[in-house]
Input
Amino acid sequence: MISVVYPGSFDPVTLGHLDIIARSSRVFDKVIVCVLNNAAKKTPLFSRDERVNMLKDVVRDFDNVVVKQYNGLLVDFAKENNVKVIVRGLREVTDFDIELQMAQGNHKVSPEVDTIFMATDPKYSFISSTMVREFASYGKSVKGFVPDIILPYIDEKVEKNTGGRKNG
Ligand code: PNS
Output
């Protein structure tokens, strides 16, 4: 039985994330999607609880996928949950430097934990949560970037932050 953790900041979850979750759920017995803080991303649009709720909606039809959150190091989460494999998606070569560094750093501090990379489906390669936040904050529709089920969450957040400007 192989359990994996698919970690990220998921601010918000995108179609690219969902694709990696779906494919991981076919390859592995159990997938734990874990929402963590990324120290480089100082001001998230959604709170960690909100990100967890959106993800729970998005993965509710997958029997072997659960969503958790953790305030701390990914490798500590892995240890506490008895998981030895981290899954990360790779979109472009620009992802590679930081991902390799992260995988090697995590392996150095926790040699029992390995990271495997899944190639992003090219049709989602251009999508990032940062891009979604930016388009949404200027009132553009992010349909086709994120699962439809979370569009209302984004609309609501943008409306709250802009005092009524609609996503669309
Ligand atoms: O979706 P992201 O922002 O690319 O995910 C990055 C994330 C959250 C997986 C990474 O920042 C992380 O593991 N954060 C938890 C803290 C940690 O373990 N840091 C050491 C490795 S960089």
